[in-house]
Amino acid sequence: MKIVVCIKQVPDTSDIKWTENNTIQREGLESVMNPYDVYALEAALKLKKSYDNIEITTLSMGPLQAGDMLKKTLALGVDNAILLSDRKFAAADTYATGKTIGTAIKQKLPDFDLIICGQFAIDGDTAQTGPSIANTLNIPQVTYIQEIISSENGELKVRRELDDGTEIVKVKLPALICMLQDYFEPARARINGIIKAQNSEITTYGLDDIGLLPEEAGLRGSPTYVSKAFRPEPKNTECVFVNSAEELAEKIQICKGGKND
Length: 261
Known about the structure:
The chain is of the alpha/beta class. The protein has a single domain, classed as Rossmann fold, CATH 3.40.50.620. It contains 7 helices and 11 strands. The strands form 2 sheets. The chain has a 9-stranded mixed β-sheet, with helices on both faces. A two-stranded antiparallel ribbon has the order 2-3. Helix 2 crosses helix 5 (191-198) and helix 3 (94-108) crosses helix 4 (129-137). The longest helix has 16 residues, at 35-50. The protein is globular, with a radius of gyration of 22 Å.
């Protein structure tokens, strides 16, 4: 089975700067792997430990500094890593991002069996990129995955979390799944893995390498845009503590101006 894990580098700082297009200025920021993508990667590594002939490729789109993050995935046991980096990819919305990543997978990793994404990215929280990749590739998708139960006979059995409980789903491969946070400690790199990663090269592709037109990627390929980006001003809200339901009712009446409606 060939697995592609899509990971994203997100800012690890409160000192976020905005571009003139109201998108995050990522170059030069201290960054980490998106937490939900950590669990996507861990899900792939668990499959590799449980089944034979598993090959994992991590893929990220971003500035060249994201190569350091990809090297860390190689240290954990990933086989290959690909970085999509081109100034023409900058300021992409989730549609353009999904189209770029999906096209890159179609062109460079056409024999994939499974794509694993994190359910959310903490710098955007839209949960749209994974489904957009699946749409570009015209493959089935399952979201809000808590656990991969098994893989056999060309099918993946997963447990997904719903608002009112959980459900077990089977999906035929090739497919895309989006992982939620799981309840385990993520793997740590061993010395042999770190040495391997240091000696490895990250394969990097730009716009021309994957066959997209300039108007299909980045800001030009994005049908949506951020009209305004700002930090909300903190509110000086006074906390009121009560010791009983009666006292709470009294405070509510005071806040409502003594009205009994």
